Amino acid sequence: MGFFSSKMPKQDSSFCLLALDCDTLIIKPPKKSPLFSRTIALWFAMMCGVYIYGTCLKHVGTFTKLRGECASNPVRFFAILSMQRSGSGWFETLLNSHINVSSNGEIFSVIDRRKNVSTIMQTLEKVYNLDWFTSASKNECSAAIGFKWMLNQGLIEHHREIVEYFNRRDVSAIFLFRRNLLRRMVSVLANSYDRYAKLLNGTHKSHVHSEQEAAALSSYKPIINSKSLISDLKEAEMAVVRALEYFNSTRHMVLYYEDLVTNRTVRLVTNFHGMFIVFLDCFALRGSCRIEKLKDVQEFLGLPLMELTSGQVKIHKGPLSNLVNNWDDVDKTLNGTKYERFLHADY
Ligand SMILES: *[C@@H]1O[C@H](CO)[C@@H](O)[C@H](O)[C@H]1NC(C)=O
Ligand SMILES: *[C@@H]1O[C@H](CO)[C@@H](O)[C@H](O)[C@H]1NC(C)=O
Ligand SMILES: *[C@@H]1O[C@H](CO)[C@@H](O)[C@H](O)[C@H]1NC(C)=O
Ligand SMILES: *[C@@H]1O[C@H](CO)[C@@H](O)[C@H](O)[C@H]1NC(C)=O
Ligand SMILES: *[C@@H]1O[C@H](CO)[C@@H](O)[C@H](O)[C@H]1NC(C)=O
Ligand SMILES: *[C@@H]1O[C@H](CO)[C@@H](O)[C@H](O)[C@H]1NC(C)=O
Prior knowledge:
Elements: H1 34-60, E1 64-65, E2 74-82, H2 88-96, E3 101-103, H3 117-128, E4 144-150, H4 151-155, H5 159-169, E5 171-177, H6 181-197, H7 211-218, H8 229-246, E6 252-256, H9 257-262, E7 266-271, E8 274-279, H10 292-300, H11 327-334, H12 341-344
Parallel strand pairs: 2-4, 2-5, 3-4, 5-6
Antiparallel strand pairs: 1-2, 7-8
The structure holds 2-acetamido-2-deoxy-beta-D-glucopyranose (6 copies).
Keywords: Membrane, Transmembrane, Transmembrane helix
InterPro entries: Nod_factor_sulfotransferase, P-loop_NTPase
Transmembrane segments: 35-54
């Protein structure tokens, strides 16, 4: 199946408009139509000029400098702010597939690092002074450096100091939330069960890379506490609202997991028989589709546009009624409430 192969061009120069360094992009016009390609090249040149003038200059002052051969390349600091089981693990693998991104994982999952404001600040300084080394750290050519941070890992508790730090050091926040909080709850319960049950041959896994593993993990159907369900959903909803309020003064963008999964590309593929239109589900077909929303993220981080890939596989698929043990209770509890929409949504 040629259209899923890795022969797809990785760097798409047609996104020149969104790239930071337009003049470093090499535009290779197709051989077929010189007039067409000359027009396109001229258009790009014009748009790049406009772009550099309009946007690049505006941000130049906000970047810090890196050393080495990329000394003159700007570096953007970011943090992915999210909640557990909202797709941030998947999202981070996608980001890290970019040659110029180093996202260093969930560094505040270690309690000592979030003990108090001073340990948090020390940890942040280490990351943003480029002193943090993990498997995700790339090289001196990283153009965006960050990590992911869960709301309940000291982020909300110490929001005042953290917002001040973000604004002072120019850290951009990427919020990643899940709209369907009921599906998130199923994932949280199943994940916390697996911590003890270790369904995958005695190993606890929060993210998987094959359909078999996904099926094994989703075979467990959690029981949802229907008595506290409404207040639990409300609490999760409020956590999101609060986070957005507190961090409103930072440079930020908000992403929803559902949009990442469903906002896929319609790709035109040519082969010997003609033109095909391929619809792809971005999570199911690993690493083989372009998620339109990721263009926004790369633009936000000032990165050259690339196609991003992840090897992760979605664990809970299909209707929620198949994934929850006491579905009738849950259905009755939410029927007629503002959370009713969670019952029927696919993602
Ligand atoms: C923060 O925690 C560290 C490590 O436990 C400790 O050494 C330090 O005194 C604490 N700082 C404050 C301000 O509480
Ligand atoms: C991205 O990384 C490549 C390879 O290390 C490097 O040549 C390029 O200059 C980097 N781009 C940016 C914008 O830092
Ligand atoms: C568990 O281990 C067996 C034997 O090593 C292997 O065949 C099977 O695929 C594993 N199952 C999972 C879910 O990893
Ligand atoms: C953030 O601030 C802007 C402008 O002050 C305001 O319009 C917006 O409603 C605020 N958003 C939140 C979530 O507080
Ligand atoms: C998909 O994402 C792109 C980029 O953010 C946006 O312009 C477009 O409107 C989105 N499409 C849908 C159907 O949401
Ligand atoms: C949901 O509520 C509607 C009326 O509001 C009712 O007709 C329907 O039977 C209810 N469904 C369930 C599963 O209770």
